[in-house]
Design a protein that fits this description.
202 residues, five-stranded mixed sheet, two-stranded antiparallel sheet
């Protein structure tokens, strides 16, 4: 039996940890990269090194960008009175792709999950409450997924934001039960944002 070199095995193992890639897919990807090392692999290595050196987390909203605050938080044209709360950065990107929202964002970093041991202290909930208490903020849109953890997190946030003096709304029509934002098309996201509904604590 012919075995790959330790370097190839290590690269395939690392790639197999990426979402959507299993061991066989990772090996095929390694072979493709090695066959095109001058045109693809070299550019990929440079891009990864540049990304690792320049991308940071926005201290205000949790977005990933080259600056802190990020380009969205720094954009004076956006409506700072509305904060859209999403689970992860890819959900923020999905909202931006839909062009349905022109306010600011807050990335929680996940959802509450007792089974996975994720509690309120593991998410950026305290930061959200602090931001929501600003007199400039009038509405917080909860754009967590229509999954059980997403719904649980939304209900918890409603209670946490009750004393902040802001309107708390939730994405409505167009988001199917069990749906995650980054898998929805732009039109569905746009409809959900336009049809958001106000939530009350309790």
């Amino acid at each position: 039996m012919v075995h790959a070199s330790p370097e190839i095995d290590r690269l395939a193992t690392l790639l197999a940890r990426l979402p959507g890639l299993g061991p066989r897919s990772a090996r095929r990807l390694v072979l493709h990269l090695l066959k095109h090392r001058e045109t693809v692999l070299a550019n990929l290595v440079q891009a990864l090194e540049r990304t690792a050196a320049t991308i940071t987390t926005c201290g205000r909203c949790g977005n990933l960008d080259t600056g802190d605050p990020c380009a969205i938080c720094s954009d004076d044209r956006r409506d700072s009175s509305i904060i859209c709360v999403v689970e992860n950065v890819d959900d923020l990107w999905a909202m931006e792709r839909s062009a349905a929202f022109a306010g600011h964002y807050h990335v929680l970093g996940g959802t509450l999950s007792a089974l996975d041991g994720v509690g309120p202290e593991d998410l950026r909930i305290a930061d959200l409450v602090t931001r929501s208490r600003s007199p400039d903020v009038r509405e917080v849109v909860l754009a967590t997924g229509a999954t059980v953890p997403g719904q649980t997190t939304a209900h918890y946030l409603v209670d946490m934001l009750a004393s902040c003096g802001v309107t708390v709304s939730r994405l409505s029509l167009g988001v199917p039960v069990g749906g995650e934002l980054n898998f929805l098309d732009d039109g569905t996201l746009g409809t959900a944002m336009q049809a958001r509904r106000t939530l009350e604590p309790g």
